[in-house]
């Protein structure tokens, strides 16, 4: 669907949260969930109630050049913005849900003022307590702060993957940014996974030559723990080491 046919995002959800007592509201969106390589990245944006830049929408609906232009405009427009990454080894260890939470917490805790409400894109609340979360399906299209987070996170993660491209030329990370593609698959068959790949994922089963490198993720906490308990313990332990990995951009 072209951007012109999508209604522009509004501050409607943020206004409702403010009426309920929130003073600082952050929009949160992720990028990289379905990639084979690279981090899953979460952006958190605080925009206030100002008029957004013309053409702001979900990053996936913008062409790469327009997305770059929008990101440059947003940098000077948002009240504050931060990024959090969960790296491939953390995704392999924790699983995607806990990795998303880890990246989101890193982003939110890097903001200069801690938000007292979060608008989270999608229907699943992967943040949970103590965060006050409002999930919004297609929030990256309908909510200004989430759309801003979407664009800024996408542009930054794409840049990170492009920086890896010269070192791993066969994988064409500058084009596929770590997502599945014929070139990416062919490079995996020939060269095997790089240190930036998520090696617990099912695509490894289709690589007979490299299948021995696949990691099997066990419930965190070891035998005898409930899966939910182990997941929370692993996530909390990873958060304790988050400071050196937090990025504000």
Automatic annotation (TrEMBL):
It holds the Pfam family RNase_HII. Belongs to the RNase HII family. InterPro entries: RNase_HII, RNase_HII/HIII, RNase_HII/HIII_dom, RNaseH-like_sf, RNaseH_sf. Its cofactor is Mg(2+); Mn(2+). It comes from Wenjunlia vitaminophila. It is an enzyme of class 3 (hydrolase). It is found in: Cytoplasm. This is Ribonuclease HII. Residues 23-226 form the RNase H type-2 domain. It catalyses: Endonucleolytic cleavage to 5'-phosphomonoester. GO terms for molecular function: manganese ion binding; RNA binding; RNA-DNA hybrid ribonuclease activity. It comes from the Bacteria. GO terms for cellular component: cytoplasm; ribonuclease H2 complex. Its EC number is 3.1.26.4. Endonuclease that specifically degrades the RNA of RNA-DNA hybrids. GO terms for biological process: DNA replication, removal of RNA primer; mismatch repair.
